[in-house]
Amino acid sequence: MQLAHSHAGASLALSTTTVVLADAAGVTTRLAPLGAPRRHQRAAPCPAGARVETTWTWDLDGGHSLALAIGALAGGATARLAFRNGGSSSLRLRELRLSGSLRVAGNPADWLLTTFAYSRRVGTLAEQLISSNEDERRVWAGFGLPVPYDLPAVET
Question: How far is CA 97 from CA 17, 47, 141, 155, in A?
Answer without folding.
Answer: 6, 27, 28, 12
